[in-house]
Amino acid sequence: MPADTVSVTGWGRTAPTAARLIRPRTYEEAALAVRDCGARGGIARGLGRAYGDAAQNAGGAVLDMTGLDRVHAVDADGGTVLCDAGVSLHRLMEVLLPLGWFVPVTPGTRYVTVGGAIGADIHGKNHHVSGSFSRHVLSLELLTADGEVRTVVPGTPLFEATAGGMGLTGVILTATVRLQPVETSWMSVDTERAGDLDDLMARLADTDHRYRYSVAWIDLLARGRSTGRAVLTRGDHAPLDALPRGTRARGAPLSFRTSSLPAAPSFLPGGLLSRTTVGLFNELWYRRAPRARTGQLQRIPAFFHPLDGVPHWNRVYGPGGFVQYQFAVGHGREDALRRIVRRISERRCPSFLAVLKRFGEADPGWLSFPVPGWTLALDIPAALPGLGGFLDTLDEEVAGAGGRVYLAKDSRLRPELLAAMYPRLDDFRALRTALDPRAVFTSDLSRRLHL
Ligand SMILES: Cc1cc2nc3c(=O)[nH]c(=O)nc-3n(C[C@H](O)[C@H](O)[C@H](O)COP(=O)(O)OP(=O)(O)OC[C@H]3O[C@@H](n4cnc5c(N)ncnc54)[C@H](O)[C@@H]3O)c2cc1C
């Protein structure tokens, strides 16, 4: 199979490393690639939307799974799909929405693969209702280090190690996923502003249960009494009778339309995001949001994936790239969340993409990220002076509060904090050692964190 040595990074474009990129087109080719991946091992890669170093493998092999992208069967009555792991959620939406079905969980981009969704056990705006992606996986086929293809079902150790296992138990070849029924491809959305962090948390705690989807954009440059001010958007799939009669929307309620602006330029020497531009953006964004608006109809891409409308938007941070820092702390540890938000605001991190969400129940995956409580995610330019040391202190605060950092976003966490963050880490390591004693499945992330 042809393999080019290329430079591979995550979506944040930090820490590029060179690897042999192999693109299997059949399951047999995938098995051959695993068998022949050599001493530095191999790792599966989907659409490369993990921000950090999870889907790269310095000096080894990277298996680009997007060549295996068939939708094999849709059960339009029962609401399940069987597909290859290289299929994107975008493709699933194209196929499933006209049939009245939606993916059970979508992250903030639909350009992720089913394999990546299981590998990171991704969560969406509906975590408080629906849990993470793997909760909706009925079974999967996993190519393991010994060359076997195993059918793996929920409730087994191998499944719980694979859900959120960052590709380190093997290569997912196919999955059967339970779907969400919808009457339309529209969302009915309520928007409101919260004046500060406590106001925001109170609104989320009091009324999130009324909404299937909920998320808050938070202004991390606001200080003083406005620290943590936010715009809260929540909603649900619009029922058919919410679409006005006689409109195009009502005539084709399940059509899936996307649109795209021009791509961000490939070279922006200093990036576009300074404290001044981000401060202005945040001010505008907050002020132009309605104080309170209900029942606005939005298309699925506008509600879930606004960033997908600007191809390669990650270039706006310039060649230095950016770090996405996402952590979670449990209920009862709001003090830690408040302290961290205050510290980020005081540090004046130019972050225009910062979201706060309230998680529901924890998921069964041993390395799944969500804990019942709160999660904050923010983008920060990697070139910000002193960033590494600053984030190290936040890691300590998070770990001290019994919280954790999300591995799908990470490129810099120190290994010694990992066990405190993920209590099932030893089980994960033991299963890996038994299943893959030669550590065939290896990534830059797994080396860095001794996974
Ligand atoms: C704009 C944006 C918004 C995002 N929003 C969210 C969000 O709201 N919630 C959330 O949870 N995440 C979010 N993410 C992160 C993203 O959902 C995850 O990183 C996801 O894993 C990316 O999928 P991918 O196909 O690009 O996988 P990659 O980034 O290529 O790989 C991610 C991991 O999955 C493993 N993997 C990929 N394919 C396979 C396979 N076939 N078999 C085994 N392992 C595999 C890889 O080894 C790697 O460890 C966001 C990312 C972006 C860029």
Quickly describe the structure:
By secondary structure, the protein is α+β, with helices and mostly antiparallel strands.
Which features does this protein show?
451 residues; alpha+beta; 5-stranded antiparallel beta sheet; 14 helices; 24% strand; binds flavin-adenine dinucleotide
What's the layout of helices and strands?
Layout: E1 3-8, E2 17-22, H1 27-35, E3 42-45, E4 61-64, E5 71-75, E6 80-84, H2 89-96, E7 101-102, H3 114-119, H4 127-130, E8 137-143, E9 149-152, H5 157-162, E10 171-178, E11 180-181, E12 186-194, H6 197-207, E13 213-218, E14 230-237, H7 248-251, H8 275-288, E15 292-299, H9 300-304, E16 322-330, H10 334-347, E17 354-359, E18 373-381, H11 387-400, E19 404-405, H12 418-421, H13 425-435, H14 444-449
Parallel strand pairs: 2-4, 3-4
Antiparallel strand pairs: 1-2, 5-6, 6-10, 7-11, 8-9, 8-10, 12-14, 12-15, 13-14, 13-17, 16-18, 16-19, 17-18
The structure holds flavin-adenine dinucleotide.
Residues 11, 43-50, 54-55, 65, 85, 107-109, 112-113, 115-116, 119-120, 122-124, 166-167, 171-172, 307, 408 line the site of flavin-adenine dinucleotide.
Describe, in plain words, how this protein is organized in 3D:
By secondary structure, the chain is of the alpha+beta class. It contains 14 helices and 19 strands. It has helices spanning 27-35, 89-96, 114-119, 127-130, 157-162, 197-207, 248-251, 275-288, 300-304, 334-347, 387-400, 418-421, 425-435, 444-449, and strands at residues 3-8, 17-22, 42-45, 61-64, 71-75, 80-84, 101-102, 137-143, 149-152, 171-178, 180-181, 186-194, 213-218, 230-237, 292-299, 322-330, 354-359, 373-381, 404-405. Bound molecules: flavin-adenine dinucleotide (FAD).
